[in-house]
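Workshop exercise sheet. Pairs work together: one partner reads the sequence aloud, the other fills in the structure field after running the prediction. Swap roles for the next sheet.
Pair: D.N. / O.F.
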Amino acid sequence: MYAIKSLNKLLSIILAAALAAALSFIFFGSKDAKREAQERPLVSSLTVSPAIPAQVNFCGQAIDLSRYDRHEGLDRELSSFTYLHATTMLLFKRANRIFPIIEPILKRNGIPDDFKYLAVIESSLDPKASSVVRATGVWQFMEATGRQYGLTISATVDERSHVEKSTAAACRYLKDAYAKYGSWMNVAASYNAGMGRISGEQSRQDVDDAMDMWLVEETLRYPYRILAVKLVFESPYQYGFVINPQMLYKPIRTRDVPVKSDIADLAAFARSQGVTYADLKRFNPWLRDRKLITAGKTFVIQIPDPEDLHYDRPNSYVHSSRWVVN
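Structure field:
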């Protein structure tokens, strides 16, 4: 009996010592773990500031970004487009459908291809886009400027929302501005602020380059937004965008229906063409009413191919191979 009691006592001492050691390990170990967690916490994702290049090429001109204001101006916009993930991803998807329309028109009119990025920042490539000051369409024309550059705007028609016609009108504006300034970056700034304001500030500030002027914040940011979009579109993977080709919006084939006479009911017209009124409006956003008054003009209405309206046949068209990871 005495031996058993002694053994039990010895076991108790051993267990107590082991427990004390374990508790000490846990206590001090947890302090070390806590200190480590504070110094190097576990994170689910990383937010990395995008690198700012020393220069960016815009319309064949090297834009020096070494000055603090230019470096920081681009940093703000590039960070914005890099981390506005949903918005920027949508731009790629829309561009797959809109850029094939815009690019040939720019080329035919002698406008540098980089100006397609101006359309991106103006409207997010949405033909139905309308601002608080009633600028409308992919190129965000004001009503007076739209008319000045040849667009029809009436009670039933608003060609500011016609992608092809508004792009041609934008080309006319851009050519006029380039004839005035001889600088494509000044042309871009004037598209936001107006030629009158840019010319006036050139005189008052005794500065030729719009990027060296003191302007309202929206116009100050404008050139850097164009440059930021260009950088992201040309190297999306570098900025964290991994795009599956099938996720891009596919171009949808249409057939042209010339119309010379008034249409009293566009819903009935749509049915006669085998499409819904909703699809008629989506593919012809320049139709601004339920009827069409031609006023002696001929308009071309685009009717979508019914076989192209479904994603049971996924997109197979990729406008730029740089956009996707296969």
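Discussion prompt: The chain has two domains: 55-247, 254-311. What would you look at next?
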